[in-house]
Design a protein that fits this description.
Shape: elongated
Order of helices and strands: EHEEEEHEH
Strand order of the largest sheet: 2-5-1-6
Number of helices: 3
Largest sheet: 4 strands, antiparallel
Number of domains: 1
CATH topology: Alpha-Beta Plaits
Low-confidence stretches: none
CATH class: Alpha Beta
Strand content: 25-35%
Number of strands: 6
Mean pLDDT: 89
CATH superfamily: NusG, N-terminal domain
């Protein structure tokens, strides 16, 4: 049965790790939010920049069947911490996180 698991990785490696886990055929979820950056020190009318940031820094959520997939394959991905136990995450947490992000209720 497919379950969600949390996988810790090095910060700033989110996209690379996510791509490599996708290549393994895994369903990967990385909740993100958009940050608006404005620099008031230089000019009031300066254009605002936007940057997408992970909601949970250094954590990706991966869905797989633990009976049919070896967790060591995940630990061998570059950027993933090797000395971690990959812990299950309730489906309700993933569902709620996705719903909050879609509705834009993050504050």
């Amino acid at each position: 049965m497919d379950m969600w698991y949390s996988v810790r990785h090095q910060s700033r490696w989110t996209q690379r790790v996510q791509q490599k886990l996708n290549l393994l055929g895994l369903d990967v979820f990385c909740p993100t939010f958009t940050v608006i950056i404005s620099d008031h020190r230089t000019c009031k009318n300066a254009p605002k920049r936007m940057r997408v940031e992970p909601l949970f820094i250094g954590v990706l959520f991966v869905r797989f069947d633990s009976d049919n997939f070896d967790k060591s394959d995940i630990l061998n991905v570059a950027g993933v911490y090797k000395n971690q136990s990959i812990k299950p995450v309730p489906d309700s947490f993933i569902y709620t996180t996705k719903r909050v992000i879609e509705k834009g209720e993050l504050e």
